[in-house]
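Continuing the series of single-chain predictions for the mutant panel. This is the parent chain; the variants come on the following pages.
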Amino acid sequence: MWVKICGIQTVETAVCCAEAGADAVGFVFAESRRKISVEKAAEIIRILPPGIDKVGVFVNNSYSDVAAIDDYLDLDLLQFHGDESPQYCRIFPGRTLKSFRLTNPADLKEVKRYRGSVKACLLDSFEVGQLGGTGKAWNWSMLSRRASQEKYLSGLNLVVAGGLTAENVKVALNHLSPYGVDVSSGVEVNGQKDCGFIRDFINTVRSWENEQSA
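Parent structure:
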């Protein structure tokens, strides 16, 4: 299970993620309370051990802006939360995660258009005026049936986001058995990442994995 902790802003948080066993850390370059400067991201990346994916999070940036940050930081993956088209995603082959905000099963029709254009689709919750990081869960049961997943997500890796916490992540995993999970607000206290919450979240995911293989 690929586990990403998003919205990293400090060296201390990055170290905690690495020590807790995260597979990826996300740096938000879009307007957000979790936005980070390229220079600060570079400082954090320098201390990360090998093997952790460095993910840049963007919203409707120009190709030149994304490419410049990508080149400067040597990012592993690019996560798009705006109106980026399948054609735009294919500019960065094999390295893009595209976010989709869900309100009902009909929204999943849009996901199918990205098959073959992205490494993974990230399914998030919808809230007016926000393009991610809502802290709210979506209705995981809309994809809990295998037929639904095959209809909409065949050929796509699924990453689950939106309102995940150590307390509910096993419910999401039981419904969806995804490729990965992405958490931000669910490991925060008063808007700041909490190392104990990060450890609890990752340990819970690993516990679920062990239960599946038992």
